[in-house]
Each structure stands twice: as structure tokens, then as C-alpha cells.
Amino acid sequence: MTDPKKISILDYTYDLPAERIALYPMTERDxxxxxxxxxxxxxxxxxxxxxxxxxxxxxxxxxNTKVIKARIRFQKSSGGIIEIFLLEPFQADYTxxxxxxxxxxxxxxxxxxxxxxEEILSLGFKVWGFELRAKLVEKLSDAYIVQFNWDAxxxxxxxxxxxxxxxxxxxxxxxxxxxxxxRYQTIYAKDEGSVAAPTAGLHFTPLIFTKLAxxxxxxxxxxxxxxxxxxxxxxxxxxxxxxxxAEWIDVCATMxxxxxxxxxxTIVAVGTTSLRTLESLYWMGVKANSxxxxxxxxxxxxxxxxxPLAATELSAxxxxxxxxxxxxxxxxxxxxxxxxxxIAPGYHFRIAKAIVTNFHQPQSTLLLLVAAAIGQxxxxxxxxxxxxxxxxxxxxxxxxxxxxx
Length: 405
Description:
CATH architecture of the largest domain: 3-Layer(aba) Sandwich
Number of domains: 2
Oligomer: single chain
């Protein structure tokens, strides 16, 4: 079996010409091309027909996170630009931070930080009738702590709507346009917190949901707030030296009950974030099943490959049932915690049977996840997509891949 720690990311690359990266979405979401892969067979269709390729009574799990306008550009009196990119709330949860008034503190990336000399940056007084100020509080090893203050009776979410910009991925090399506010967002986006869209869901429309229902295919939702770490390049020679980004997940008990009831059906993760959430739930259930008193069921990068977790023989039903019991014992209706799980070749899937996903960057952890699901066939799939005019990355086309296990 492949040892994920020993994987070289150089083995997971392909040539991606710049012109194959989609800079804009298709006019109609569900007109994007769809590649399907099952039992070694590759076929083509369009997203509006995705229900035709799914078994009756499947269960599709979507990530209903909502992208916030996480990019704020401040201009100094000297003319220099300092760009602050929000990563996640600092020592607080998303709901309270986004609903806060007057003050909010975030972990951020900063472009042009060398120009930020002690001063407090300000923005927008004449434009919106209020002033947004930013104070650089602390430098961390991988980011900065920034405190924002504003003098209006607005929530921070409302401030971002006015002062922020949609955080298009770095490989979409153009300025944002008005349409990006709606198109870089799924139609079912609900819970604010992501700084990148769960892009597999961008293709779904009311028509598709109607077709799914007509085929008695169920849908349900989890929340994973996508961080900028999803674009973090792998620079290490071996994966054991790469630090996977941790992300916040929020799952309700009724969704877990639905999973248990459908384990004998085809459970499909719409997007890599939904997949990572589903598989994390299994391992959180394994932890909950242990005799230890555990207050938080977070999952770190490698523990699912290491003893004692990796030695578990719990079924998916047993693990998820243990997770429900843990929630009940702790008087919780929702599971809110972090997962740093790295899914790479060598991983054995416990919950998901298929994944809907776009085409990912070379040498990325997202491509490793695809390879974990379908093995070396990922090369043939990406070769087919390249040779048949599929569009790549966030605004590109996508695929339905049935897991080879």
C-alpha cells in the first residue's frame, strides 16, 4: 500500500497551459461539460444531465458555505497599496465575528506589508459615510493578526459587502467583475465564512435539483469554510514535510442520521470539501467510540494513517452512530470543529462512493485526493479532458468520478 507520507508531489503533475484555465464561468451554470468515470470507462455529457449518471436513491452531499468578500485594498496617503486578505477569525467563531459591530479581529495575509509602518490604515469615509480602519497587531509564522474598527452601526459582514472584493483564486489573472459576486457563489450558499468557493457546486441549478428529485435522489448539506490554504502549493520533496491546511466544519446531527440511513446507497460528495468533511466524520466517530474523554473531535493531518486510529475496524455505521452518541452526551445538535485531514493515495474511503469535482492544479493536494479516489487513472482522465477541450480550475468544467475501492 502507498505510504502517503512518502509521496512525491512531482509524480502528480501534468502540463496545464494558461489558455486552458477558465477565466470566466459559462453563461449558464449547468451547460458546463461533465466528464464521467466509472469502472475504467470515460464518457462526456453536460452538467444539466448529471442525474442520468447517478444511481436511483443516491445521496448527494453539498457544502453550503458562502464566500465572503475577503479581499480589502487600502491605499496609503503616499499612494501605496496594502491588500489585506482575510483567512479566518482570530480566537472566535465565524458567526460571532461576522455579526460583530464596531470591532473584529482576523488572521490575514497581507500584500505590501513592508509598506505598513506602524500607522492605522483607513478606507471609505467619503464613499460610504463611515470609516473602516485596520491595525496590524501581530506577526505570526504564516500570517498576521489584524484588528478592524469601524464607526457605523453595521455588522462586519455588512462592512465587507461594501469594502471588500470577491477573492478570486490567484490563477484567475484578471480584475473582478460585478458578475463574480453571484457566479463565484453556489446557488445554495448559506453560511458565510469561505475565502474560496466550493467550486464543484457552481455548476448546480434549480433544474438539476428538480431532476435529482425526480429520480428520488436525495440531497443534504454540510458546511466547511474553505480557506486560502486550498491553493497552498506543495513545495516539499515528500508529503510528510508539507503542512496541510486546517478548515472549520459545521455539521448538524440530522445530517449524520441521514448518512447512516443511506449508507447502503451511493453517497456522492459534491466537491473535495464535502468529501473531506464526510471522511472526517468517520474518523471523528472513531475517536468518539474510544474510552477516552474527548472534548474536541478535531482531525490532524496524519492521524488517520497512524495507530491507533488507522488500526480501527469500525464500520461506517458504528463510527457515525458513536459520533451521534457523543453529540447527545455533550448536549449538542451540531458538530463544529476543525479537520486537517490529507486524503492521498493510500487512503481507504469509508463514506463516499463518488465525487463531483472540477479539474485541479498540477502538484496540488486536491489532485492527490482525486488520485486517492481513482488511482493512476487520474492521468487518463486529465489527458482526455486536455485533449477534448475541457476548461480547467475554478470556473472550468468538471467530472463525476466513482471511487475505485
